[in-house]
Amino acid sequence: MGRWRPPRPRGSRYITPEGARRMRAEVKQLWEVERPRVTQAVSDAAKLGDRSENADYIYGKKRLREIDSRVRFLTKRLEEITVVDRIPDDREKIFFGAWVTLEDEHGVEVKYRIVGPDEFNVKEGLISMDSPVARALLGKRLDDEIEIQQMEQRVTYYIVEIEYPSPSAG
């Protein structure tokens, strides 16, 4: 059985200014800090002799491949993404970059920001614009309701607040 997997569909090409800054910072950290440190460790391990049984050498070479692969991916992705740093004219409607507060039938509120697929982090309330929740929200207005399938039940949420961060924020 081969390891081949069909390619994943490409995510949307939009990103917030904060997400782009985080990606550039990760490239800089990997390239200027971590890679030189690992390269030095591999060099030191290689001086010790037999490389075939040298765990530091083997792990270091593997880590260098991982770093190079991640830097290549991030660099290529940064070239093709579009940074959305403009607030829409109609701020009463949900677009990319909006913070949206939802309330369920029990009065429980949740707050999400619609961001690009490269920067989502559900723990921080950042959801990808390609996610089912974000797709249900995009284009909606204040006081609209959406239904979302959660586990084995449908939950109705009401849009109670829409906010856009200022372009200089973040």
TrEMBL record:
UniProt keyword Protein biosynthesis, yes or no = yes
Keyword Zinc set for record: no
* Cross-referenced PROSITE patterns: GREAB_1, GREAB_2
Q: Which residues form the Transcription elongation factor GreA/GreB C-terminal domain?
A: 92-164
- Identify one Pfam family in the record: GreA_GreB
SUPFAM superfamilies associated with the record: FKBP-like, GreA transcript cleavage protein, N-terminal domain
One of the entry's Gene Ontology molecular-function terms is: translation elongation factor activity
Q: Where is the Transcription elongation factor GreA/GreB N-terminal domain?
A: 14-83
Span of the signal peptide: none
Q: Which keywords label this protein?
A: DNA-binding, Elongation factor, Protein biosynthesis, Transcription, Transcription regulation
- InterPro entries named in the record: GreA/GreB_C_sf (IPR036953), TF_GreA/GreB_CS (IPR018151), Tscrpt_elong_fac_GreA/B (IPR028624), Tscrpt_elong_fac_GreA/B_C (IPR001437), Tscrpt_elong_fac_GreA/B_fam (IPR023459), Tscrpt_elong_fac_GreA/B_N (IPR022691), Tscrpt_elong_fac_GreA/B_N_sf (IPR036805), Tscrpt_elong_fac_GreB (IPR006358)
| Protein task | Necessary for efficient RNA polymerase transcription elongation past template-encoded arresting sites. The arresting sites in DNA have the property of trapping a certain fraction of elongating RNA polymerases that pass through, resulting in locked ternary complexes. Cleavage of the nascent transcript by cleavage factors such as GreA or GreB allows the resumption of elongation from the new 3'terminus. GreB releases sequences of up to 9 nucleotides in length.
Family note: Belongs to the GreA/GreB family. GreB subfamily.
Task: Supply the name of the protein.
Answer: Transcription elongation factor GreB
What is the organism of origin for this protein? Microbulbifer harenosus
